[in-house]
Every structure is written in C-alpha cells, then in structure tokens.
Amino acid sequence: MDRKKIKKYSILGVLFFLPVAFLLMLYPSTNNYNKLDVVKENVLDLTNLSSVKNSEITLKDHITVLGFLGNDPESKIVEASNLKELVYNKFKGFKKFQIVILVSQQAKAQTKRLIQELNKYSEHKYWHFVYASESDMNKLFNSLRSSLRLDSNYATRGFFVIDKELNQRGRLDDRSKKEIERGDKVRPLTAYNASEVSIIKNKLAAEDMRVLLEEYRRSGRNKADSSNRRAKDLNPNQEAPNE
What we know:
Layout: H1 3-31, E1 37-40, E2 63-70, H2 77-91, E3 97-103, H3 108-118, E4 127-131, H4 134-142, E5 158-162, E6 168-170, H5 177-182, E7 192-193, H6 197-219
Parallel strand pairs: 2-3, 3-4
Antiparallel strand pairs: 1-6, 2-5, 5-6, 5-7
Helix pairs in contact: 2-6
C-alpha cells in the first residue's frame, strides 16, 4: 500500500474516531448531572392574597424566588437591589420565572416607593409584591425549611427558591471541598442571604438557578429554545405569553 493510501485511510480513521471519542467524554458528565436538592416538600401556596397590581399570584407551576419584607420593605433596599441586578435581570426571560415578595397592608406607601425605585429604568413585570397579613406570612414562612426567623417586622434577608411543584430547593450540603476534607459538619443552604453579594451572585445566580432551569429544560418542561422565551428575538416589543 503506497503512502498516499495510508495517509488517506489515516485521515478517515481520525475523522471517524474523533467524534466518537468526544461523545464518550461527554457521556459521564451528562449522566452524572446533579439536580438542585429538594430541601423541603409541600410549601404552602399563596391563597386569597392579591398583589399590588390586584392580580392573583401563585407559586405552583412557577419557578419562584420568594422573599419576606413585611412591615418595612424600604429597609431592605440593598437586598432588593442585589436581587434585581444579579438574579431578576438574568432570568426574567425564562417562562414561569418570577420573584414574589410578601409585604404587609400597613406598608403600602413604603412598598410603592420601593417599587418606584426598582422600576426607575424598566418595569419589572415578573416581580410581584403581594399583600399578606402577619398570620399569612407566618404560615407560609413556617412551611419552609430554614434556620432563620422572621424579625419583628415580619421580614428576613433570606430568600427562598420554590419550584413548580411547590418544593423548596437549595443545597443539602453547602460545604466546600476543603470543609469536606476537614470533616466539617454538614451545613445545608436553604435560604440565600440577599445582603451578601457573593451568595446571590456566585451561589444563587451563577449556580443554583441555572441548575434548576437546566433540570426543567432536560425534562422537557422548560425548553431552552427561542419559542420558550418571554421576549421574542425577532420582535423585542412583542411580549411572549407567560405560559
């Protein structure tokens, strides 16, 4: 066999086996894909509560970042701003994604000012402020898993991730590799402290929300193609239905 034929078959062999090798490399990572942990099931939904816009808001069938700002929402402007910049602005294009904040009826004026501050440059259509009594806030909060407590204003810096099936998501083990190697005690992450930029940016936005959305995409319940985006690429002024 002359050199030309040897060279030809060698090239064909490389072209054939290279894609196969690439797929074999991808196979372990595909099958070892980790879902975001369910840390608590059967979270209470919102019932008989109306939003500032007088619309009914539910948690079921949505991917929700849930917060409690209670009687003094303006005091949590830093937390709200972090959530806006690092989470809402990144994920607002995904269908069924929403942020829901519970506030009290007594805080209507404060809530209005906070909304105006958040909406300075654009309207936050999928960010809902919902009026709730102190009793309702307690009931919903107590259905969550958390080491936190609502303060005297029925507020907390911690924000919670609720999936479409009313499961609370988070991390059953939030230890770093070094902490695991040291044998540190298992530490869950059930709420994300919005006053800590590193937690909201690196854990909630960069990792956990993306993992959860990818989970729904892989299951076919939240496809990541253009037809499943709220804003249509070809016509940015036309809002896609929030199905």
